[in-house]
Amino acid sequence: MWFNYLKIAVNNYGFELGLSINSRDYPELFWQPQVPIENIPLLFGNGFIGVQSKILTGLSRGGVYRRHNKFFDPSRPIRITVLNLCEVGLDEFIEQLKERLKSYKFESLFVTNSISLKNFSGTKARATVEEVVNELMEIPPDIVLAFLPQSDRNADEEDGGSLYHKIYDLLLRRQIASQMIYEDTLNNPDYYKNILNQVVPGILAKLGNLPFVLAEPLQIADCFIGLDISRESKAKLSGTMNACASMRLYGKQGEFIRYQLKDTLIPGEEIPKQFLEGLLPKKEFEGKIVLIYRDGRFCRQEVANLLEWAEAIGCKLILVECRKSGIPRLYNFVNKTIAAPEKGLALRISSTEAVLVTIQVTEKIGLAHPLRLRVITGNHPALISPPIEQVVETTLKLTLLHHGALKMPRLPMPVYGAHKTAKLRLRGIYPSSMLEGDRQFWL
Prior knowledge:
The protein has twelve helices and 19 strands. It is globular and about 65 Å long. The protein is of the alpha/beta class and 443 residues long. Helix 4 packs parallel to helix 5. The strands form four sheets. It has a ten-stranded mixed sheet with strand order 1-16-17-18-13-12-9-10-11-19, sandwiched between helices. It has a four-stranded parallel sheet with strand order 5-4-6-7, sandwiched between helices.
């Protein structure tokens, strides 16, 4: 009966529905977390336990889970330079930002620079901004907070590029963190408070602090690595350009440990063997179980090279492909109505593969795009292939750890942001002086 209602519903949109895989006929194929993902406990500073929907409360009551060495002394202020390029008043915002940081147990020291770019050409504006940023470096800040004119949002379509990426590049090369805010965001009263909610945890994380981690350690592995190599279509020629490979390393509680980038551009889609071996130094990984997420498919000899190295250094690997496109949709069917799927809903395709919904979207936007996870199997002594349900649950929990926004991302954090890093590399923007580091500069 319910299937007939479903057919009628989709017929109204011009679609004809054939047989479906549904939880009524195939309950064993569908999975949902025993504990709703929003209720998974997170650990903040001073042992305070919170949940994803109460991140700001956790930071106010417990502080950050771990301070970066640079800010280990609570009396050491965060030195923030404000670069105002959009001719709006910022006194109230800066005062609220200062108070918010203080509520999270961080002192701050602000220096403000306002520059008028009115009637400047794009070239003149970029030259002026470069000059100003260079002057700011005489007394280097910890982070630069840049307020950009609304016209800069689409400036990357122009040959000279945007002020956003100009500033980002100048600061990243000097190992200075940055946070960009556009003018319209400040002018919208509905967004004003939300900026503080989103920006402040991101500022703390970009400076190397860890706002929160999972309260309960993940059992599937000792640590987690995300691997990615992104490519971008050439603007005026056929084919694609490949960007640098990147990795991110996380601990058993989902705590960010470090990132590593390969400086040179990669000619193909396969991550070089030398780079893969460099990700797993024997001293750090001997005797450990490491779960490696590959953004997309493992290419050519990547699996063989990883397993050969793992056996040589004495560690075990769990290899998981995390695909983002070409994935079938999942739906809820409630009260004879097709509805968006709940976050955490998964379809088990086989004992090694599943489709997983990691985000919730509003009906105005449409349906969430799921992820497709596949566990690599084989008889190699260094390879472990856990149940797909355990991989799904782990992946879902790793989406809780985004420190630059209050909403959960679609991807687990080990692979989140890798595409942004690669796209910046294609623009010539990358941290050439810090190809390894412990700060999440990409947030």
